[in-house]
Amino acid sequence: MLRYTEKIQETAKRLLQEKRVDAFIGYGKGSVPMMNQPLMVSDPDRVDRLYWDNFCGLNLCNYLTKRTDKVGIVANGCNSRNIVTHIIENQIKRDQLYIVGIPCEGMIDHRAVMRAVKQKEILDIQQNGKTFVVKGADFEETFEKEKFLQSNCAVCIHRNPVIYDELLGDLVEEQTGVSPYQDVEKVEAMDPEKKQGFFTRLISRCIRCYACRNACPLCYCPTCFVDESRPQWVGKSSDPTDTLTFHFLRAYHCAGRCTDCGACERVCPMGISMRQFTKKLNKDCQELFSWEAGLTLDQRPPLDVYRPDDYNDFIK
Amino acid sequence: MTERVYTKEEWIRGLEGLREDYTLFVPVKDGDFHAFMPMNGEKVPDFDFQNTRLSPKSVIYPRSERLFEYILGNADPEANILKESSKDFSPRAIVGIRPCDAQAFQIVRRNFDNPEYRDPWWVRHFESTTLVGLGCNEPCSTCFCTAVGGGPFHEDGLDALVFDLGERYLIKGLTDKGEAFLAKMNGGKPADEAVLKAAEDLTASASQKITSSPPTDPLKGKKINDLFNAPFWEEVAFGCLNCGTCTYLCPTCWCFDVQDEVLGKEGDRIRNWDSCMFPLFTLHGSGHNPRDKKVQRVRQRFMHKLKYYVDKYDNGVQCSGCGRCVRYCPVNIDIRDVCERMNNY
Questions:
Q1: Quick one: average pLDDT of B175-192?
Q2: Judgement on whether residues A55 and A190 belong to the same structural domain of the protein
Q3: What does each C-alpha distance from B290 to A226, B286, B297 come to in angstroms?
Q4: What is the nearest CA distance from B176 to chain A, expressed in angstroms?
Q5: Which of A27, A133, A141, A221 could anchor a disulfide with A126, C-beta 3.0 to 4.6 Å?
Q6: Chain B contact for A236, CB < 8 A?
Q7: Is there a single domain that holds both residue A32 and residue A94?
Q8: For the residues A217-226, what does the mean pLDDT come to?
Q9: Interchain pair A207, B54: CB under 8 A
Q10: pLDDT, tens digit, for every residue of A155-170?
């Protein structure tokens, strides 16, 4: 994974020097372990700030919305699917983009690492292929990357970018035989009361900071429904019903659009697994429409298209 | 000044005994992190923690607080009159609060309790709360309390301070409130010279462990307009998601929004935490928004903390160096880095 850092820097430098792009969007190394920062570089002499490792879990597509310049951007599987969705939804044009594809082998779940070292402070992480070494003031432990993947990465079947102008490495083998929806099936099997309890507990720690919404490239409405005051769709206090309303409505707005990139969960300061909402809708889209978001520029997403010959009965 | 020593078991028993006198907020392990929760017999306090994910500011300044209630209509003579909601101002104690979070209440107090304005609810909650601090034996790499006038065993803003000496705790009363707390607490014995020496050594060694120290003194001498128009804000703000993580986790962010919630003919006027990161924060009724761009909002947060507050109160920065925003900003915007940029501009 780390080998990509140099390649990204070289590519960005070339693109900027040749004026193929006005700016290049990637990640920079964070000031604390396991945290990287989204970065935009427009000076070819400053590309050495670009960086890549196993903690690039934020979705950079967020930074493309309504841009008018020509931009280069690094994109792994899920990020590239969001770029496709962005193009389909007219948030940016294909010809404005130079997509630098990165075959991905999954990102590491920083919370799982914290748990493994019993929440002790981590001062440094060294990544060596399939393993990584975690160092603190009085400990050093080696872990297998495979066992610490973000939960969305563990079940990802689109690790290779689906759209790119240039690829920085050999395509990786896609995972097969994963069952992405085991957790959703458990919830589906619950009776309504249990479901209500499950979701209420799930979001009980929510502080309404909206990091999940803002980290999501799908959330680009000029005014979000939670910020509307006429009419006021949802209360702004810490009332659990309002908080649950926010999470349900946010998820529904992502139906048929979510690529399960996991950015929402990654950024949550309270560690809430809000993918439990969006995954159910992804599963429905898969079952009802054989649809996975962001795989092609040639098809409209199921919820923004009407066809008189739709095979579903409810539409007739 | 009372100085008593407790074994760790005695300490927990002593706290149990205080539950009739105070509502005690203690650090409790809650999943992956710690949170301050009322000690109610079910929750077990766990003082083996670095710091809580959320600061204890909500004990004094709740995330949502009902201020007034009213009924609407014409028939009832009591209708359309705002009536103050009843509130619980009975004695509370936050036990295990870190010195940075206690200092944060002093920073916030300058806003809520000054000759010009006095927020009655904040002030009464604050006055009814005793802050029993727990010094930091092992500060984190993101802590910079010593750079903003505090320290791992800083006493200002605390009513009592606890030193974790391994097998035992030393507790020092620092104010009348703290002495009253200690007087009610059972167990313990007077501290001897050896214990006091151990506490002194601990304080000295902990301060040495603080590795981050962005200087904050140069900020005062800078010109507001120079900093406001500095070219680095675009770069600082690029990654910002404009979420409320930094402001809601911050012990010194105090901004709020007042909302009316009505059901049928009954209404509540509620004060909720708000965040300068949200576009709605400054949206005018006219539709105009003076801070409608991300970069303006990011600049506002740092200028408020590191310049406007400094100039207005002449009492340091609006930051107690707890490092929560540094650790939990989803896009790693680091206030230490921003402070350096402002210093060097």
A1: 96
A2: no
A3: 20, 11, 10
A4: 35
A5: A133
A6: yes
A7: yes
A8: 94
A9: yes
A10: 999 999 999 999 999 9
- Based on the structure, what is the number of domains in chain A? 2
Are A151 and A236 contained in the same domain? no
Domain-embedded: residue A123 = no
Please name the member of B138, B239, B336 whose beta carbon is closest to the beta carbon of A37: B239
ipTM of predicted assembly, 2 dp:
0.94
Q: What's the whole-model pTM score?
A: 0.95
Q: Do A271 and B33 touch (CB under 8 A)?
A: yes
Asked if A215 is an interface residue toward chain B (Cβ–Cβ < 8 A), one would say: yes
Distance in angstroms (rounded) separating the CA atoms of residues B153 and A253: 48
Range of the domain at A193: 179-311
**Is A5 inside a domain boundary?**
yes
* Contact partners, residue A149, CB within 8 Å, separation at least 6: A106, A107, A108, A109
User: In the block, which residue shows the tokens 């010009």?
Assistant: B116
Each residue's pLDDT tens digit, B256-292: 999 999 999 999 999 999 999 999 999 999 999 999 9
Condensed to tens digits (0 to 9), the pLDDT of residues B76-90 reads: 888 999 999 999 999
**pLDDT tens across A94-111, in order?**
999 999 999 999 999 999
pLDDT over 70, % of chain A: 99
The answer on A164 and A70 residing in a single domain is yes
* Domain annotation covers residue A134: no
Is the distance from CB of B89 to CB of B125 less than 8 angstroms?
yes
Which two three-digit tokens encode residue A54?
């196993």
Domain spans of chain B? 3-61+87-208, 217-344
Enter the tokens of residue B89.
């101002």
The residue-averaged pLDDT of A173-182 equals 95
A165 & A107 share domain: yes
Backbone angle region of A34, left / alpha / beta, with phi > 0 → left and psi within -120 to 50 → alpha: left
